[in-house]
Amino acid sequence: MNILFICTGNIFRSMSAEYCAKHYCTAHHLNEFSISSAGTIATPEPIDPTTLATLHTFDIDPTDHIQRQITAEIVHAADIVVAMASYHQELLKEEFGIHAPLFNKICYNTETSVLDLGDVMDDPNTNIPKRQAHLQKTVTYINDAMPAFFAHIGAYQENNNTANNEEKR
Description:
Blueprint (H helix, E strand, L loop, with lengths): L1 E6 L5 H15 L6 E6 L9 H9 L14 H6 L2 E4 L2 H11 L6 H6 L8 H4 L7 H41 L1
Parallel strand pairs: 1-2, 1-3
Helix pairs in contact: 1-7, 2-7
C-alpha cells in the first residue's frame, strides 16, 4: 500500500509522519507499505533543528529528506493520501478531485487537524521557546500516533477507495 502524507511545506508535519511511519514499519516488520510525503507549497527551506532533534530522540534520521511539492502524478500514485490539516483536504479535493482523510481521523476517528506553527502563532519567529515547544509536541504526537495509524489504515483504505470511486462517477 502506497501512503502519501500531505502538509504545506513538507518539512514538518508530513515529513515527520513519513519518517515516523517508516520507522514504525521497520520496527514492526511491515513490508507491505511504501510511504512518502509532499507539500502543497514546499518552498525550499531547511528542516527546523528542533524538528530534527525531536525525531532523533526516536532514532529517526530525516537528514536526507528532499522537499517536494504535490503533483497529480504523486497523488495518483498513492493508494491513500493523508491530509495533516483540513485546509489540505480542501486543496486536494479542489485540485485533484480526491477525498483525503485527516491523519487524526485515521488514528483517532476525530476530524481535527495537526496544527502547523502558523495555525498556533501569529509570528513563529518571534517567540522561539513557544515555537520549539510546538514543534517538539507535534513531532512527538505524530510519532506516538503511529500504532493507532497502522491499526486503522487498512480498514480506512477500503472506505477511502469506495468514497473516491463514487466521487469519480
